[in-house]
Design a protein that fits this description.
signal, Ig-like_dom_sf, Immunoglobulin-like, endoplasmic reticulum, four-stranded antiparallel sheet, transmembrane, alpha+beta, sialic acid binding, 268 residues, single chain
């Protein structure tokens, strides 16, 4: 048992040393040139055939090529540079290392404006993928009297945060007190940044206005049809009366003509 343990530890140490050697074979540099920051990786001390390069940030592939060079570079906007990058030399075996670019947080609101109905719950969210990660998040409401800091002890509000994201949960929204601008502030060892979210709260009856509008349109349409049908029927009745009285006038005129002829004969 002791022999097996010694062998196992030896293999683990060899694996660790091999990993360290693989890491140490790649030298990295970060150069700022105005609005651009250039990341460089150079593979040293390896005879492996290079079939390409790949740059990643997290799970996202930023760049990939099929060049055989032992140096690869990637440029990023200086304002968006902070984060952990991975440069990979495609070979057998693969050689890779991380390039850490330090910078202040870049806080972004998931949505710059939110709409909700009074009495509902809503979640305002901000994110930051900076390196080093945010160590302190803070929410506050911007008012004319000054910034009102929001904590888990604030009425109908509580905050949930992690290294890369913060959420302000607001329950039972009030139509008078809750609308306005909310700021999320993130801080790390390199600096601080914030984003602003505008919250609009509408009246409970606001959701009924479209329905009431449709009902009103239907009522107007029905009224117009009713009036039209009523007038049309009245016109039809008048036409029928006129058509019925016409023969009577003709018949009376004919009878009068006969009477005149009889009187003329008697006179003769």
């Amino acid at each position: 048992m002791a022999t097996v343990l010694v062998v196992f530890l030896g293999l683990a140490l060899l694996g660790t040393e091999s990993g360290c050697r693989a890491e140490s074979q790649i030298s990295t540099s970060v150069d700022v040139d105005g609005s651009k920051t250039r990341l460089t990786c150079t593979l040293n001390g390896s005879d492996a055939e290079i079939t390409g390069h790949r740059w990643k940030k997290g799970d996202i592939v930023l760049k990939e090529d099929e060049l055989s060079s032992r140096t690869t570079q990637y440029e990023v906007d200086t304002d968006e540079r902070s984060g952990q990058y991975l440069c990979i030399f495609l070979s057998d075996p693969k050689h890779q290392t991380s390039v850490d670019v330090r910078g202040p947080p870049k806080v972004k609101a998931v949505k710059k404006s939110e709409h909700a109905t009074e009495g509902e719950m809503i979640v305002l969210t901000c994110k930051s993928e900076s390196f080093p990660p945010v160590t302190k998040w803070m929410w506050y409401k911007i008012t004319e009297a000054g910034d009102q800091v929001l904590t888990n002890n604030s009425q109908n509000k509580f905050v949930v945060s992690s290294d890369t994201k913060t959420e302000l949960h607001m329950q039972n929204l009030d139509l008078e007190a809750d609308p306005g601008q909310y700021a999320c502030n993130g801080t790390n060892t390199e600096g601080t940044d914030q984003a602003i979210i505008t919250l609009r709260v509408r009246n409970r009856l606001a959701a009924l206005w479209p329905f009431l509008g449709i009902v009103a349109e239907v009522l107007v349409l029905v009224t117009i049809i009713f009036i039209y049908e009523k007038r049309r029927k009245s016109d039809d009745i008048l036409d029928d009366e006129d058509a019925g009285s016409a023969p009577l006038k003709s018949s009376g005129h004919h009878v009068n003509d006969k009477g005149k002829k009889v009187r003329q004969r008697n006179a003769n």
